[in-house]
Amino acid sequence: MGQDIILTAPDGHSFGAYRCEPEGSPLGSVVVVQEIFGVNNHIRDVAERFASIGWLTVAPSLYDRWQPAFTGGYTPDDVASGRDLKEKANAEAEKVILDLGTARSAVAEAGKVGIVGYCWGGYATWLAASRLNFQAAVAYYGGGIINSNDEQPKCPMILHFGALDTSIPMTEVNAIRNAHPDVSVHVFDADHGFNCDQRSQYDPRAASVAAMLTERLFSENLRN
Q1: SS3 74
Q2: Is CB count within 10 Å lower at the N or C end of the chain?
Q3: Is 136 helix (H, G, I), strand (E, B) or coil?
Q4: 192 among known catalytic residues
């Protein structure tokens, strides 16, 4: 369903992306933002799922500036490598935003554009929703959002968290909720990574409900 493509940012940086087209005319477009593990099989599967229900999707390889074509699984070594790249990306967040803007432009042909991110991608989505021109945004278990709690999303946004996620304590979730009453915050009885069926933390019920809420937000705000 998808194909690997190359995108070029305004500063000349070329990076990979996975693009998926729906059957028939797209409802709109969605940028899918990776976990710390790059555009791996799970993120490709997520992009394909959105395309299967009508959205033109693209998943940019945001670590390419620091390690081209990086993908990881979910082993301790993969986690360590992903976290190292996350720190490098966070230190140059303006470049991440530049590449997300490029990804947005790459699918804007289909009309309004939404963005959804997972794990570190949830944090990147928070920044993109605040700084770029997306029409809807969803962040799943976005670690680090609390550190940018002064950012203000410019579009309708949902945040999905897990009550069992020790990396994002409920004190942080509540602080984000209190600072942003216009952002819809949902907390599931699940752990970090509950949407990923390749991880032990996968929770089918939480994933299903979160997907329903996400798809409804996109349908209400992006549909052509």
Answers
A1: coil
A2: C
A3: strand
A4: yes
